[in-house]
Amino acid sequence: MHTYLDNNATTPMRKEVLEAMTPFFLEDFGNASSIHWFGQQAKAAIDEARQRVARLIGAQSTEIVFLSGGTEADNFAIRGIVESQKSKGRHIITSRIEHPAVLKTCEELEKQGFEVTYLPVNSDGLLAAAQVRDAIRPDTVLISIMHANNEIGTIQPLEEIGLIAAEAGIYLHSDGVQATGKIPIDVKALGVHMYSMSSHKLHGPKGVGALFVKKGTPLKSLVTGGGHERNRRAGTENVPGIVGFGMAAHMAREGLTEEVGRMGQLRDDMEARLKAAIPDISVNAENAPRLPNTSNIMVDYAEGEGLVISLDLKAIAVSTGSACSSGSMEPSHVLTAIGKTPDEGFGSLRISLSALTTSEDTDRLVETLPGIVDRLRQLSPYYKKSGI
Ligand code: PLP
After folding, report:
1. Per-residue pLDDT tens for 92-122?
2. SS3 assignment for 33-71
3. Residue positions annotated with a catalytic role
């Protein structure tokens, strides 16, 4: 039996999601732009999915643009707004702990003459809204601050940043890929103009996502072609994927408040038991507002890769750093930004839960990890056993 605790990388699809999608591969295969019955079936299904995704974040359905995932949503938001605003200014504000979909996009824009301020965060990965205010310049056209971090789970004070952006008349984008479906979200209260989402992080299919675009936001389209998605994203819609995303959003919204409590309790119990069983470990961002499903643990005198591989051999899946950068031996940019040295960064373990995680899953980890840490530490030349 495998135990999956790497849900910030991706989540298993719910059975109900697959069932909702299946007819749109088979009998209801129409192109949503066609005027005949087949097309209209597909169009109606997309409309329903759009409403479901909109409802999950407190948006209007006309404010949801479907696209290929979180990466495209981030690219569309950032490139689309700066392209439409470049005659007004070329300065962007973001943070050092964004996902590469935001950071690399900003770096590309720097090569094209834009200037980017990468705000530092504190040791919990938290940004102070005042930092954003202080960074605003007359030529600032975009603020892009993620809602919740994928590695350590820190939730940023987006509502306060939203007020600052509104006061200054600057567009605000937030990468909400990790927050969507895990905590209640109201884009109107947050004050964002754009909000990125990805279906596969909330038990939906991969390769589909959405960008919330507040009514009236002038976003230049990146993918040109037909008039799909109200001329905002050309290309025949991925109907089964969109339907699956809609079902996943619908199911995430049902009982979300209880689920936040259940998952948070499971995570907190797991952390308390791990801390009691293993000496010299600590939890990153422990006291910051944090996603209820995310636990990032620093294990001193042990190597993250070694821990992940050893756990994998016991059929438990977790990760070290972010899934998108694992495989490289670079320390995580998020852990570096919260002040960890490269050596410390290498000993980090990300354990991420989902709505489908049970206490049996966390029990297995709590029972298995102490022995593994002990064995790896015995091999470490830096580990000093007590009394030696
Ligand atoms: N943004 C964040 C915070 C993420 O965690 C991820 C995925 O790891 C993405 C963006 C990219 O989303 P997708 O995998 O849908 O391209």
Report:
1. 999 999 999 999 999 999 999 999 999 999 9
2. CCCCHHHHHHHHHHHHHHHHHHHHHCCCHHHEEEECCHH
3. 324
**Claim: this prediction has a pTM higher than 0.90:** yes
Which single residue is written with the structure tokens 């994927």? 241
How high is the mean pLDDT of the chain?
94
User: What are the structure tokens assigned to 89, written together?
Assistant: 């200014």
Q: Rounded to an integer, what distance in angstroms lies between the CA atom of residue 277 and that of residue 281? A: 10
Q: Quick one: 269 and 379 in the same domain?
A: yes
What is the CA(70)–ligand 1 centre distance, in A?
Answer: 5
Say if ligand 1 is within 6 A of residue 331 CB: no
List the CATH number of the domain containing 249. Answer: 3.40.640.10
Tell me the CATH number at 284.
3.90.1150.10
The number of folded domains in the chain is 2
pLDDT of 386 strictly over 70: no
Pick the more confident residue, 340 or 49.
49
The residue whose CA is least distant from atom 8 of ligand 1 is 9
Q: Is the CB of 69 under 6 A from ligand 1?
A: yes
Q: Ligand 1 pocket check: which of 11, 68, 178, 200 to mutate, most ligand atoms within 8 Å of Cβ?
A: 178
Domain of residue 32 covers 15-254
Ligand 1: does its nearest atom lie under 6 Å from the Cβ of 204? no
